[in-house]
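Appendix B, example 12.
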Amino acid sequence: MGDLATSFAPVLLILAAGFLILPQVRPDNRIVRFIGAWLTVLLLVRYLYWRVTETLPVFDLSFESLTSWGFFAVEASSSFAGLLLLHVLSRTTDRSQEATDHPVQGFPGGPPLIDVVIPTYNEQKEILRRTIVGALAQDYPRFRVWVLDDGRRPWLAEMSEKLGAGYRTRGDNKHGKAGNMNATINWLHTLPEPPDVIAVLDADFVPTPAFLSRACALMHDEKVGVVQTPQHFFNPDPIQLNLGAAAIVPDEQRFFFDVILSSKDAHGTAFSCGTSALVRASCLKLIGGFPTESVTEDLLLSIKLKGLGYRTVYLNEPLTVGLAPEGLQEYLTQRGRWCLGTMQIVRTPWGPFGKAPTPLLMRLHTLDTVLFWTVGALIRVLCILVPILYWWCGLVVMRADLAGIVENLGPYWVCCVTFLGWVSRGTNVPVLAEAMALLVCRESLRASAIGLFGSRNQKFKVTAKGAMRDETVVQWSLVSWFLAAAGLTLGGLLLGVLRGPMAGTSPEVETMNLFWSLYNVITLAVASLMCIERPRFRREERFVADEAAEMDWEGGRAPVRITDISLIGCRVALPPGLGLGRGAQVRLDLAGVGPVQGEIRRVQHDSGHVAFDPSPDQQVAMIRKLFSGVYVRSVARLSPWRLARILMQRAFE
C-alpha cells in the first residue's frame, strides 16, 4: 500500500491541478467540465473497488459482517446517486441568447395569449398585493392575471378587482394547488379567447416586468412544453438568518437553480419547480391538467410531458423574486412536502420503475431525486452513528489503514470538492452542505416512509409565509438530537484516549475514527447553530441601495443618498448640519415613484430612518420599483474563512 507520505501524492497532485487550472477557466467550459466530472467518477469507482476488495470482511451472518456490508450497501447506493449527479454536472447550457434571438413579436400569429394564475390559500394581504401588482406590470402585449383563491376571502376578491386582476374560487379544496389551478384552467378554455400559455406564480413570488416576454420566447420551439425560470428570494432563508451570514452565504437553493437545473436542461431532463414557470396550454390538455397523483405536481408534469415528447427547458435569469421560508419549521415542512411528492411519484406509472413510456435518462434523473431524499438522508445518519458505535461498542465497519484511506478516498474526496466548488463558483462548502443536509434528514426519512408505504391521499401542506418573531427560538426537537450525538461522539473520543486502542483493532483504525469523529462534531455544531432562530422584527424586507434622492421639509431642501429601502421606509445618509430630528415631516422624491410623504422615526449619527406615508398609487409604484429585478439579493461567492469567523462568533454569543 505504501507509506503514508507516498499515499498523499495523488491528493497533492489533484489539489495542484485544481488550484493552477480551474481559476483560469470558466465553469461553462465544456471540455474542462467534462474531464472534471468524469475524472471524479473514475476516482469514485476506484474508491468503491478498494472498499470491496480490501476493507470488508468475508460475508457471513456475524454481527460485524452484516453491519459492515449493510453500511457499504447504503454507501454504494449513495455513491450511485453521486455518480448520477456528476453525470448531470458534466454538461451545462445557457438559453439567454436563444431567448434574445426569438422575441415573441416574431412568432407566427403574433405573441401567444398568456393567462397568469396565482393560486393562494391563506397568504396575507401585503404578500398577495406584491404578487398581483408585479404580475400586472408585465411588458408583454397579451396577458391576463387571475387570482385563484382556495381561501374564499371577500377582501381578496375586492383587492383583485381594484388592482385589475380577475378573481376565481371554487366550492372545495380537492387536490390542493393542482386542483385549484385545474378548476380555473378548465373554465378558461370555455372563454371566447382561451389561453395559449399558462404562467404559474406562487402567491409570494413577484415577477419582474420582463418575466413573460423572456420566458415565452423559448416557446418558439413547438416541442417545448414548459419553460422554468429560477427562484430568487428577497429575504434570507432560515439557514442564512440563523447563522447571521446572509451577506456571505448564498441561499440554500442557489446550487440547485444556478448549477444543477442548467445541467439537467443540457441533458434534456430539466423539470418544472412549481412557480415562475410557463406551461403550454395544449400540453396541459393532453395530460388532463396539472397532475394530482402527487403533491409535487410540478415534477410529475415534466415527467408526463417528457413521455409524450415535450421538453421542459430552463431560462437561468432572475425573472421572479419571492419569499424564502421564514422559519425552520416552515423550511422543514416545505422540504418534507417535496420529499413526499417525489415518493408518491415512485408509486405511479411515471416513476423511475413505472410502466409509462418515460425515456431512460429521465427515469435515471428521477431516480437520482429519489435517492437524494432516501439514501442521501440515511447515509448521513449512519455516518454520525458509526464512529459512536466504534468508540462505545468496538464496532468496525471499515478495516483500513490511514495510508489506504488517504490513497483511495483522498483523491476522490478532494477532486469532488474541488470540482463542485468550481462549477458552483465557490458557493458550495462541504461542512455547510453536510450540516444543511443533516438538518432535513429526520423529515426526509419520515416523509419517504409515508410516501412509499403510507396512504396515497396525503394532503398538500402550504408553507406559511409572512411570519415575524420578536425573540430567539431554539428548535429543541432538533438541537437535542444533534447535541446528544455530539456528546456521545466526544464522550467516546475521551473514552478512547483513556483506555487506548481496543483489542483487535489497529492504531490506523483508531486514527481514522478520530478524524471522522472530529468532522462529525464540527458538522453537528454547525447544524445546531442553524436551529437557533434569530428574531425577525421587520414587517418588510429592506433592500440594500445606493441611489440619489431629493428630500425637502418645511424650510429646506437637500440632496440625500438612500442606503436601504423597503415598501414602508428607507434609510438616508443625511448631509451634516440639517438639524432634522425624530418626528420631522419630510418628502422624498424617489426615482420611479415621485414625491412620497414621510416622517423621520430615528436619527443615528449621519443617517435618518424615514417611514413612508404613500398614496395607493404610490404603493403600487413602490412595488414595481423594488421588485423590478434591480434589488435581487445575491451572493456571488462564499468565503470559507469569513464563514468560519462568523460561525465562531455565533457559537460564543
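The chain is about 50% helix and 15% strand. The CA atoms of residues 8 and 179 lie 58 Å apart.
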